[in-house]
Amino acid sequence: MFFDSWHGVLRVLVVGTLAYLALVAWLRVTGKRTVSKWNAFDLIVTIALGSTLATVLLTQDVALVEGVVGMGLLIMLQYAITWTSVRVGWVQEAVKNAPTLLLRDGKPCVDAMRRQRVTHGELCAAVRASGQASLEGVDAVVLETDGTFSVITSGWNGSRDALSDVDGVARTRKGDGGN
Hints:
The protein is an alpha+beta fold. It has 2 domains: 89 residues; 64 residues, CRO Repressor, CATH 3.30.240.20. The chain has a 4-stranded antiparallel beta sheet with strand order 2-1-3-4. The chain is elongated, with a radius of gyration of 22 Å. The termini are far apart. Belongs to the UPF0702 family.
């Protein structure tokens, strides 16, 4: 239970080191985006890579080459999807959610919060984390595609080009209530 053999320990050390080096090499070749946290799709790939590495490391039935090929397959699929999504709009829409406006001019967008399953307490926590003491002092709160909150405290009356892809911004203009 606590110790089977030195062979198993040696295998973990050797295969683990080689699998880790192979994963690092794959990630260097394909770039930073492979393990980014932009959206749920990226998170799934990151978790799958970790699971594959753990399987290669701890399962004697999986050969190192099979694990390295499996990691490579996941990374290449991620690369292909992200490469295509940058160039083909419908692919991006299929794999990535749009950011969502949760607060406009200090007023919660209740319907959007309900659709995104965000509570009033979570909204307040995001505003506090940005250093603000009241919702009224915030122009907008956006739920980003990676699940983080962006709090905008100034510049709402400008061009809003950074908010062009946010769900709810086009429908909510100054003075319409934003719900």
